Amino acid sequence: AQSVTQPDIHITVSEGASLELRCNYSYGATPYLFWYVQSPGQGLQLLLKYFSGDTLVQGIKGFEAEFKRSQSSFNLRKPSVHWSDAAEYFCAVSLGNTGKLIFGQGTTLQVKP
Amino acid sequence: DVKVTQSSRYLVKRTGEKVFLECVQDMDHENMFWYRQDPGLGLRLIYFSYDVKMKEKGDIPEGYSVSREKKERFSLILESASTNQTSMYLCASGRELFFGEGSRLTVL
Q: Is the minimum CB–CB distance between A43 and chain B shorter than 8 Å?
C-alpha cells in the first residue's frame, strides 16, 4: 500500500541555520510528490511539487526539495531559516495526477531566536 | 488567486445532531476533496469528487456523506454527529490541492 513517512515529528533549529525535513514514500509507480506548510489555525499551502524532470525543485519562500528515486525520498531544504518558517510541514504523494493525496504525519518546526 | 472557502471556521454541536460543512471554490476545478486532520495522524481523506453528482469514498468515509450538486460546491454531512468526529475538517480542490482554512468541529 502507498504510504508516506516523515520520521521527525518535531524539529527545532536556530534562526539562520539550515533546515532539512525528511520524507520517505512507498509507491510502485513514478510518484507525484508535494510539500505543504500549515501555519497554526490555517489551511495548508503548497510549497513545491515534483511531477517529472529535474529532480531538484524550487518552491516558494526559499524552499527546495530533491527527489531521490533510489532512496524513495523527497526531502525539503532551506539554507537559512527565518522565524516565520515556524509551522507544520506535510509531505504528500499523489496517486496519479488526480489530486488524491496521501499525507505524512507532519513535522512541526520550531525556530529559536 | 484560487480561493477555497469553508463556510464555518468553528462549530460546536451536540451528539446526534446533523452537521453540514460547506465548501466553495472559485476556480472551476473538477476535483474536490474533504480531509480530516487529527494530531499525530496527519490528514486522512474522507470523500472526494471528480465531477458534479459524482463521489468516491476515501480512507475513512464511515459516519460521513457528501453532496456535490454544483461544480463549485462540495458539502460534507455528518448524519448523526458523535464525539469521535471532533476534528479539523479541510476542504481542497484541484489537482495540486488548494485548501480552505479549515472548519474546527467540536461535538459535545
A: yes
Q: Report the residue from A9, A44, A106 with minimal CB separation from B90.
A: A44
- Closest by CA position to A22, among listed A68, A83, A81: A68
Distances (CA, A) of B31 to A55, A64, B19, B26, B53: 27, 27, 23, 12, 12
Of B40, B95, B98, the CB nearest to A97: B95
pLDDT tens column, B67-104: 999 999 999 999 999 999 999 999 999 988 899 999 99
Q: How far is CA B83 from CA A10, B4, B76, in A?
A: 28, 27, 17
pLDDT digits (tens, 9 = 90+) for B29-69: 999 999 999 988 889 999 999 999 889 999 999 999 999 99
Q: Which residues of A touch B92 (CB under 8 A)?
A: 44, 99
* Cβ count near A6 (within 10 Å): 19
Cα–Cα distance measured from residue A15 to residue A5, given in angstroms and rounded to the nearest whole number: 26
Residue B66 in contact with partner chain A when CB distance is under 8 A? no
Whether A59 has its CB under 8 Å from any CB of chain B: the answer is: no
Residue B76 grid cell: 460534507
